[in-house]
Amino acid sequence: KRVSVVLFCQTGVYYGSKLELRAKPEDDEYWNSSKFSAFTFDDEDDEFTKMKESKRAVNSILVDDDDDDDDVEKVSWSGEPIGSISWSVKETASSFRSSGEQSFPKIDTAPSLPKQGSGYSLSSLFKAFTDTSTRAYAPELRKPKSECKDYMSDWSPEETVRRMRKGRAYSLERFRSLQDKLLLLDEAVSLHDGNVITAVLIYLKRSLSKEILFRELMVREVALRHYVHYLKEMGEQKLLLMQYKEHLNIKDEGRRRDFLKSCLSLPFSQDDAMHVQDHYTLLERQIIIEANDKRGEAEIFRKYPRKASILNMPLITTLYYSCFYHYGEPEGTFSSPANIRKTFRISEKQYILTALGARAKLKSWFDVDSLFNTKNWLGYTKKRSPIGFHRVVDILQKNNAPAQVLQEYVNLIDDPELRLSLAQKYKCHDIVIDTYKDLKDRQQLIVYQGKVERGSHEDRKIEELINNMQIRWKN
Amino acid sequence: MAQSGRRDAPELPDFSLLKRLARDQLIYLLEQLPGRKDLFIDADLMSPLDRIANVTTLKQHEVDKLYKVELKPIVSTADQLCFLIRPRIQTVKWISDVVNLDKAAGRLRRYKIIFTPQKFYACEAVLEEQGVFGDVTCDEWAFYLLPLDDDIISLELPEFFRENFLEGDQRWVGAAGGALRLIHSLYGPFSKVYGIGQCAKMVYESWREQVEDGEQKTQQPEIGNVFLIDRDVDFITPLCSQVVYEGLVDDIFRIKCGSVEFGPEVTSSDKSIKVMLNSQDKVFNEIRNEHFSNVFGFLSQKARNLQTAYDKRRGMDIQQMKAFVSEELKGLKQEHRLLSLHIGASECIMKKKTKQDFQELLKTEHSLLEGFEVRECVSFIEEHINRQISMIDSLRLLCLLSLTENGLLPKDYRSLKAQYLQSYGIEHLLTFSNLKQMGLLVEQQPGETLTVMESKVGKLVNDKTAGKLTDAFSSLAKKSNFRALSKRLVLIPKSGEEYDLRVPRDMAYIFSGAYVPLSCKLIEQVLERDGWTGLEEITRMLNGHEFAVSGGANGTESRIKADSQRIVLVMFLGGCTYSEISALRFLGRERGYKFIVVTTAITNSGRLLEALLDNHP
Question: What ipTM goes with this model?
Answer without folding.
Answer: 0.80
